[in-house]
Design a protein that fits this description.
2 domains, 30% helix, globular
């Protein structure tokens, strides 16, 4: 039996169904089943999820009591009850991931791909596809699938190979231990991050701040993006990074006001993004337009 294809979206409705032709549905089914088999073959060894653990090539993280809060299993059980996604670039820009549900041994298993904005085929500008021996203009907005499965959900057991990418599609923050006071002290003097009043940071750190600090410490975006680039990207979203010389090198100064600290942590955790289609800037958890400061 061919499988239905669903999208996981950043805003309501959090799940929509893609209306596929019979031929495409068959190819989507074959694609996901091949990728699912590859996922199982490549990553046979489960490891209980631990934020600081670095997986080996043949390993995968497992969360044993994952809560399917958006209702992926319900969607697979009753696909016609799920609204069909609008065939527009704006709707495609709202997609975070794609999934199917397959009957494996009498039980439904969910297979999930992440969806990147670069996979949107939009009509803005001139987009061409090769067909019947020549290039033709793309007549509608479209998308392409990823080349691998990101996660597998069996009952309440979620398996994935990258926490960084999995949490871009699924809500996993609640499964990550919040930063302790010692973690915060370490964060306040880690690499190009500095605060001369770490006790004040501890005092203003609620659960959200502690969770964000744990996530930021795990991903260490400053190891990938130089400080000057971080500052420029922050300014594009109206976020002012205070940079000062510490121990002979430029460091990001951690604010001791809670609202400013949360804005900094959301930025370092990549909660801000720019639409690939319109250039509009959003906060990813709510997709609310960013209000730039004058």
């Amino acid at each position: 039996m061919n499988l239905e294809l669903f999208s996981i979206n950043a805003t309501r409705p959090y799940i929509t169904r893609l209306n596929l032709s019979a031929l495409i549905q068959k190819e989507v089914t074959e694609c996901f089943r091949a990728q699912a088999a590859d996922f199982v073959t490549r990553h046979p060894n489960p490891v209980a999820f631990e934020a600081g653990y670095k997986l080996e090539e043949d390993e995968k993280f497992v969360i044993g009591q994952y809560d399917d809060i958006i209702g992926m299993f319900n969607a697979v059980a009753a696909p016609l009850s799920i609204p069909v996604i609008s065939p527009s670039a704006d709707a495609l820009d709202n997609i975070k991931g794609l999934f199917v549900g397959d009957d494996i041994g009498g039980h439904i298993t969910i297979f999930i791909q992440r969806f990147e904005k670069r996979r949107i085929l939009a009509r803005n500008g001139l987009t061409m596809v090769f067909s019947n021996g020549c290039y033709e203009k793309l007549s509608g907005d479209g998308l392409s699938l990823d080349t691998k499965i990101m996660a597998r959900l069996r009952g309440t057991e979620l398996e994935f190979t990258s926490f960084h990418f999995a949490r871009r599609v699924l809500d996993l923050d609640g499964y990550l231990a919040a930063a302790t006071n010692d973690d915060i002290l370490n964060f306040c003097n880690q690499g190009p991050i500095y605060c001369d009043s770490p006790d004040q940071v501890i005092d203003i750190s609620d659960n959200l701040v502690r969770t964000k600090i744990a996530l930021v410490m795990r991903d260490r975006v400053w190891d990938v993006v130089p400080i000057n680039e971080l500052k420029a990207k922050a300014e594009a979203f109206g976020i002012s990074l205070t940079i000062a010389l510490h121990n002979g090198s430029d460091s990001i100064i951690i604010p001791t006001q809670r609202s400013e600290l949360k804005r900094l942590l959301k930025f370092l955790d990549e909660d801000y993004y720019e639409s690939s289609l319109t250039g509009r800037k959003f906060v990813s958890n709510s997709k609310a337009p960013v209000q730039l400061q004058p």
